[in-house]
């Protein structure tokens, strides 16, 4: 069930990313954030209630709420035209939590693939803290590009591997490939996009309220 949710995380990351790039109107992205935010509440709640008290299942499921509340916060910010600072500082909280979940995947769960994936997500949430919380609009397009790319490489691809039963076979390869990919691609994108002062306008009222 969690794999299905991960597949749609890929969709909302991509939509939010291209919205920050100015390819999609912000209000048209709000429904997807509501849909996936709601799904990511239902999924971990189901997993926790059916875990039979297994602490590892409960611990793994708890991380999904970080996504659900982020997407719902995004959707409400867009719909209500709220200032982005509250969402930005929530992203700081999630960034630090994502680092913990990365460490847990490397150690407690012995899953290096998702250990690296959680590092990717931590980096993205950090970017949104800088963009929305600290109001550094110059990284708006860079953040959008990273977000859109992560939708495919950290959610869509792992979800398909999990759903088709191929993840365990390639978990080590996924970890190494994504680690190298992150350094090379995000570094290259920063050279191209991260130093610019232009950022895609985001409705309503130019508020950059759309993170991962």
TrEMBL record:
InterPro entries: AmiSUreI_transpt, AmiSUreI_transpt_sf
Gene3D superfamilies tied to this protein: 1.25.40.600
Pfam families per the UniProt record, alphabetical: AmiS_UreI
Coiled-coil annotated spans: none
Membrane topology note: Multi-pass membrane protein
Record field: transmembrane: 6-24, 31-51, 57-74, 86-104, 116-134, 146-164, 170-193
Alphabetical keyword list: Cell membrane, Membrane, Transmembrane, Transmembrane helix, Transport
Keyword S-adenosyl-L-methionine recorded: no
Domain of life where this protein originates: Bacteria
The keyword Transmembrane is annotated on this UniProt entry: yes
Cellular location(s): Cell membrane
Family under the similarity heading: Belongs to the AmiS/UreI family.
Name of the protein this chain belongs to: AmiS/UreI family transporter
